[in-house]
Amino acid sequence: MAAKTNKRSTKSNGSGEREPSIDSRLARALNHPLRVRILAVLNERPASPKEMAEILDEELSNVSYHTRELHRLDCVEVAKREQVRGAVKTTYRGTTRMMLDDDAWERLTKETRNGISIAAVGEVIDRASTAIEADTFDARTDRHVITLKMDVDEEGWSEVSEIVLDAHRRLEIVEVDAANRTPDPESRVRITVSLLSYESP
Known about the structure:
By secondary structure, this protein is of the alpha+beta class. It has helices at about 20-30, 35-45, 50-55, 60-70, 100-105, 110-135, 155-180; strands at about 5, 10, 20, 75-85, 85-95, 100.
């Protein structure tokens, strides 16, 4: 699901001009709520528009159109094309994690930012509920659920934000190291880590 970072990124095309960064493309891609949901599915596993329409309970024509838009913006790629009952079935997979820098996040409309946040929190709840129902949530005695309410000033908020982002960066390294140590995915354990920091009412 989409998240916001505080890094700023640009890329030169060699002629001195700045190409659209991944954050800029993501900002355009995520300016429709259905694209957010499609990219979340394709970052989880490859799927065709028809399969995603069933998963998301959306019209196939809408899903197909927005998947093509994500493909045009280089956020997804074609994983496979095959003939199925006289028609071509195209399966896509996500190529971009939904991480936005400050500049890209600010370019989104308030409604889009709210929609992304609602979808992200909804995914956190859905994943936790699924794990509880599958009896995996409490399978390990060292699992953690931490909610900490704090009163901070602006400097404190900046420190909290950096701690959360640093934890995210370190977690990505842990995943890569685990894959290198244990190449067989069947021998690895799937886990979910949710990091939230936000101003409370």
